[in-house]
């Protein structure tokens, strides 16, 4: 793998619950991205089923080895694609999931951890909570951290992704203007959040949002790719669009040498204080157990 990495984000309007129609959109964007030399292509959260796809939960959920996922993986070839779907796991547990696919295989999967139930968001009605944060290595230089939408609004989860070695953060989201409340500016909040993370951790970020309207939510698009200094290198408007930008690992090296956030993370202290807090609150200590 080269020390250069081309990140892409595919912004489009999913058809709620219509996997066939959404598969066709995925294929179109995969072809475009391959033609542009994209190495890693991120689709929006729940890209195969739509934001409200869980309203048809039993019809649209699929296992991680579903033929449709593997078909997209074959179409991707050597390019890595991040696809959002509802995973049906063992024991009929359903997860809001994102998979990294390439060369006919599922390479890595993340199950959304921070399941929101505020504003107009009711995900706890449908989804079990993911339990792990990790990262997927493309090479010694490029290690992919993958978090889904509200996961990034729990800073501890983002911190964990970088402690696991991530040098790039992939952020499939599903952000409607009205999702949190009329007084909350979702587009500005996302712009601020991902710029902070890019600068704080010296890491490029690819954020893919959907566009169009589903139910009571209007999706504003605004997908963007930032470099390791927090500069926006590519940004979509409000319509369907493929964006991409080429990243240089030398820039990540310089950014992390100037601001060594990962190096200076005191993991032992964080664990000690977390354990102390859990003991004081009298709840099961999941970290130690």
UniProtKB/TrEMBL annotation:
Entry keyword set: Hydrolase
This protein's record includes keyword Hydrolase: yes
Enzyme class, spelled out: hydrolase
Domain of life: Bacteria
Gene3D superfamilies: Carbon-nitrogen hydrolase
Biological processes per GO annotation: putrescine biosynthetic process from arginine
EC number(s) given by UniProt: 3.5.1.100
Residues in CN hydrolase domain copies: 5-249
Keyword Hydrolase: yes
GO molecular function (one): N-carbamoylputrescine amidase activity
InterPro entries: Aliph_Amidase/BUP, C-N_Hydrolase, C-N_Hydrolase_sf
Protein name: (R)-stereoselective amidase
Species annotation: Palleronia abyssalis
Source taxonomy: Bacteria, Pseudomonadati, Pseudomonadota, Alphaproteobacteria, Rhodobacterales
Gene behind this protein: ramA
């Amino acid at each position: 793998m080269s020390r250069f990495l081309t990140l892409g984000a595919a912004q489009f309007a999913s058809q709620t619950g219509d996997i066939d129609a959404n598969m066709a959109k995925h294929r179109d964007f995969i072809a475009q991205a391959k033609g542009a030399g994209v190495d890693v292509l991120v689709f929006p959260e729940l890209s195969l089923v739509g934001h409200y796809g869980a309203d048809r939960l039993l019809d649209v959920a699929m296992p991680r080895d579903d033929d449709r996922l593997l078909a997209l993986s074959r179409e991707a070839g050597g390019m890595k694609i991040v696809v959002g779907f509802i995973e049906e796991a063992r024991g009929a547990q359903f997860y809001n999931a994102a998979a990294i696919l390439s060369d006919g295989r599922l390479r890595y999967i993340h199950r959304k951890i921070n399941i929101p139930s505020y504003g107009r968001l009711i995900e706890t009605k449908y989804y079990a909570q993911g339990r792990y944060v990790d990262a997927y290595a493309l090479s010694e230089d490029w290690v992919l951290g993958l978090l889904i939408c509200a996961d990034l609004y729990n800073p501890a989860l983002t911190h964990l992704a970088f402690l696991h070695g991530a040098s790039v953060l992939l952020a499939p989201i599903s952000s409607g203007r009205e999702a949190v409340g009329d007084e909350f500016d979702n587009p500005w909040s996302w712009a601020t959040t991902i710029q902070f993370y890019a600068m704080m951790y010296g890491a490029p970020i690819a954020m893919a949002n959907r566009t169009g309207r589903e139910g009571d939510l209007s999706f504003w698009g605004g997908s963007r790719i930032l470099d390791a200094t927090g500069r926006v290198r590519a940004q979509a408007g409000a319509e369907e669009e493929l964006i991409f930008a080429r990243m240089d690992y030398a820039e990540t090296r310089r950014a992390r040498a100037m601001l060594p956030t990962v190096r200076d993370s005191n993991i032992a202290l964080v664990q000690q204080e977390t354990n102390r807090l859990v003991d004081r609150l009298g709840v099961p200590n999941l970290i130690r157990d």
